[in-house]
## 1
Amino acid sequence: MENNKSSQKMTSVFKQIFPFKWMFILLFVCLLSICSQVFAGQKTHMVFFEGEENELHVYRINGSLPGKTLLIVGGIQGDEPGGFLAADFYADFMLEKGNLIVVPRANFPSILKMERKINQDMNRKFSDDKIINYETRVVNVLKKLICESDCFLNLHEGSGIYSDKWETKFKNPKKFGQSIITDNAILEKSDPKENIDLEKMARKVIEKINLHIKDKNLLFHFNNHRTSHPESIHKEQLRSATYYAYKVCKIPAFGIESAKSLPLEQKVRQHIYAINGFLEVLDIIPQTPGIDLKKPEMQYMIISVNDAIPVVVGKMQHLKINKGDMIQVHDIVANYERGLAVDVIGLGNQFNDMKNRLVINESTRIEAKKDFYKCGSVFLDIDLKDSKGRKPLRISESKQNSMLRYKLKINGKLKIVDNYKHVTLLRGDKLVIEDILTGDIDPSKYVVNFKGFVGNTNNNNGEDRGFVIDTSKGVLMERYSMDKKGQHYYILTSLNKKEVGKIFINIQSQAN
Ligand SMILES: [Zn+2]
């Protein structure tokens, strides 16, 4: 109901913005093409009930080629870690063909408590349930996901070991462990030609799992609950998720049960063999390994000052310290784990200053890198106006004390230069404007232009950072020099086409 309301509201808003039908159609076509780009070979992560204890995370992974959609649900009962830990691996999966919907932890509170249920058994709430609680809301989301899938796996741990005949108290037809459960052998469709043989699907997968099991007593078996049959010994399953899938959504659904008593790793592995088996049966093809080249982004730097307890400083934040303080970057938090480094600009090592203890006497910037890619900065500010008395350490977003400073290299030698200062070079010196050191914003937002030099000849956007500027006679364009004689040049820094800084470059002739 709520959804309907909001979509009606949307439509009327669209009508106001796009009064003409053709515009609306155009917009729709645009959206469609964006959507298809986003969803082919992509993944999305949705969070339901965000901020609540029963937060529900849903991962959708779409292969670049179309195919079947498999829904994997783990942790519907919190004391069955074999299932939810296995599902976790598929949340980070990438696919060539077909789609996955992964809900690793359906019942997070019960997982945190390591108990089967909190208010009610979540796997007994899929039909005629009158009690409303958080489990109801999760079940309502799961019901939708089940009906939009082509196949559903509910990952469990079962007590004892299932056997189709009575062997012992622990191994008999009433037990669940080491079996793949269906609610019926055949899934009947309205057109009988479309009936699906659930038993055949399950047996194919069981064969694959059993290739990995050495102990004969632990082999997987097919376990048909015949849930709706008058003589079924598992009538409680009429209220389960797989029966909902079977009865309402009419899709193949299986309970995967590893025996509770087995070591955790073995249970997780068996679930993985089962999931991989179903992927194969459904012709859903994984990428091995999955490639996900997302844009590197630093979130936090963990920095200590004078060996005190480290503080967390966010991207583009300013850490205000005192002149002479010693800093050490312990780690950075980014959307990658490997290839991370930091450069305390103007100090320390040539490539990587991670864990390096460095004394800071002037304001500078610490740049985070993921391999070659600059993925975020933190500013180190020293308040020079009032150097009397030590000020407490502060982290701020403030724009104070953020004078621009430049990192230059002259014939390979580092030189830090303040804004509006003069630099004297000898004719023939090679100058590189490496970067802007301090300021309030991401240094890549500025344009730093050496007037009279063209860095990128293919695309003269005025940006000259990183290029070698040769000051030899006849290389620079004299008409752009301030004296028109090729002796006084300047570097102009602008932000949104407005000047924010300059460096004056005087080129002296080589002494004879
Ligand atoms: Zn269970």
## 2
Amino acid sequence: MDELWNPERFRNWTLFLDRDGVINRELPSDYVKCIDEFEFEPGAIQAIADLSDLFSLIVIVTNQRGVGAGLMTNTDLNTVHEHMTRLIVSAGGRIDAIYAATAEDRQSTERKPKPTMGLKAKSDYPEIEFEKSLMVGNSESDILFGKNLGMKTAFIDDKNQFEQRNSAFGSDWVFSSLSSLAYSLMNSGIE
Ligand SMILES: [Mg+2]
């Protein structure tokens, strides 16, 4: 990997996480509408616990147009997020904030790859520095969102589209899962 990849580099940075396909299983052609449909990706809870020790803020940015489309309510979405956060916290992890773009319109300026959710986070947490932020996601819009804000980016290649170590959508790093990202980070560069 070209870029320096070790825990000390990211200490006190902000970690921006996509949700579906990174933290929890993405449902094919559907939205996670209730906790019964929410299933963590293997190793994701422990990964977030490990990353919580390193990053000073952990922020989820998620496109959830199922709300705007009327397939679920904001309350449904909040219930899923409370459930997710509770399990993460009980494993020693942390989620500091969650931003969801719920508009139905795919062109909505709230949605990734537009930077709106990142700017909202910065407004709520002025200590965020985008140049000291890492965006992790499993779609092109996640990587573009991070790059639009000047963040470092890691692509989660959950569909095995890219050879490991090859750049995906111009991302700085590629991993097969959040778990492998955290493992790689925690076990690299320790001198
Ligand atoms: Mg995703």
